[in-house]
Amino acid sequence: MDSFNFVFSLFGLLLGLALAEVLGAFGAALQERHKVRIGWLTPLLGLIVMCDLTSFWAWAWNARAVVSARYLVLLCALVITAIYYLAARLVFSHDRKEWPDFDLYYFTHKFWVVGGVLLSNALLSAGELALGFNPFATHLVQFFAILFYAQGIALLLLRSRRWSIAVMVFWLVQYPATGIYNMIAHGSGLT
After folding, report:
1. Where are the domains of the chain?
2. Which of 5, 50, 88, 143 is the S-S candidate for 18 at Cβ 3.0 to 4.6 Å?
3. Per-residue 3-state assignment (H helix, E strand, C coil) for 103-120
4. Model's pTM, two decimal places?
């Protein structure tokens, strides 16, 4: 087993559990949709968390040549994946009686979820810098990084349901658009 597979066997598991948290909680909410008002905010936030978790997987694959099984690398990866997991855990309410309206739950818990996603990405960028990579090497990447953090900060500040939905839909569109752009620009196929 090479160093990357050793390191990612643990953190891939945590990321998979984070995805399962979002999907499982969404499934539970759908089962109880006659008892709760799901709305749009919480499911959209769940999609953002899942897309961002998936982008972390893509980053890990691209960084596989330089990821080592050193304790500091493991510790940093633990912090990042733990934050992702906690953010994913908080996307949906697990107490339907206390939170029968998921839009209200969203506005109460969005700081932890969106903040967790932003913090995880900031720590990942710091990790890239520590590994000797410039995560903001091109103007296009710099633009999308600024847009990413601006959208996250906007979500933290917004109190409007409609504007929050608009920002999240715009944010969600960027994940497949970036993937398609990378596929075309780098000829890397769908993997």
Report:
1. 3-133
2. 88
3. HHHHHHHHHHHHHHHHHH
4. 0.91
